[in-house]
Amino acid sequence: MSYNKTETDNILKIYNKIKPEIIKRLRELENNFLTGNDEDILAEMTFCIFTPQSKAKKCWESVCNIKSEGFLTKGTTENILNCMDGVRFKYKKSEYAYSLRNQFLKNGKLEIKKFLENFNNAFETREWLVKNIKGYGYKEASHFLRNIGFGKNLAILDRHILKNMILLNIIKEIPKSLNKKNYVELEKKLGVFSEKENIPMDHLDLLLWYKEAGEIFK
């Protein structure tokens, strides 16, 4: 595979500049899982339900509002909905968030961290999330796992990443649908680029986000 040298050089230049910030941010995200409680993990899971076709910062603001009002672990779908400013398709996503919360409540207590620690690896965990969490596809599941430090070898194939994969000549076009087969194939291709250019996969996502948005978020 012959990558676009101009685009590759540009990305490497940006990476050399912001690599310490990327490392710091990923450590923060991983530490949030290690030191946080189950409600903190639920917040990340909910955030990744909200993000499709919505601005990430607005989604996180909504999650923080839901959490501050106490509706992350209690309350109705309507309570959640009323806190979701700026989130697209919020009626359906509020139902997903409500369903997610109830899925992990056992005798009135959240049990997420212990459950996640039972899986052997991130790929196995992702498969379970996609099959069992309403509102999760491979992108959302990968995003969540990266945000808790479990997604070092996973790709978060959103429109920004796919656009840059075309610019880099990793792919020629974006598939009409991202089913499991397409997702895994694209992830492997991005993984080859990641290894060749010595940019870890979890670094690459934040790097390309920074390239598009001018900041590192989550």
**Unreliable spans:** none
Q: What fraction of the residues are assigned to beta strands by DSSP?
A: under 5%
Mean pLDDT: 95
Strand order of the largest sheet: 1-2
Tally of alpha and pi helices:
11
Radius of gyration using CA atoms only:
17 Å
> Quaternary arrangement of the chains shown?
single chain
Helix coverage percent:
55-70%
Q: Which structural class best describes the helix and strand composition?
A: mainly alpha
Number of domains: 2
CATH class of the largest domain: Mainly Alpha
CATH names the topology of the largest domain as Endonuclease III, domain 1
Envelope shape: globular
- End-to-end Cα distance: 30 Å
Give the beta-strand count: 2
- What's the CATH H-level homologous superfamily of the largest domain? Hypothetical protein, domain 2
Secondary-structure arrangement, i.e. CATH architecture of the largest domain: Orthogonal Bundle
Biggest beta-sheet profile:
2 strands, antiparallel
Question: How would you describe what is shown here?
Answer:
A two-stranded antiparallel sheet has the order 1-2. It has helices at 5-35, 38-50, 56-68, 77-81, 90-103, 113-116, 122-132, 138-147, 159-167, 180-196, 201-213, and strands at residues 105-106, 109-110. The mean pLDDT is 95. The chain is mainly alpha-helical and 218 residues long. The radius of gyration is 17 Å and the shape is globular.
Task: Provide the fold topology.
Elements: H1 5-35, H2 38-50, H3 56-68, H4 77-81, H5 90-103, E1 105-106, E2 109-110, H6 113-116, H7 122-132, H8 138-147, H9 159-167, H10 180-196, H11 201-213
Antiparallel strand pairs: 1-2
Helix pairs in contact: 1-11, 2-3, 2-5, 2-8, 7-8
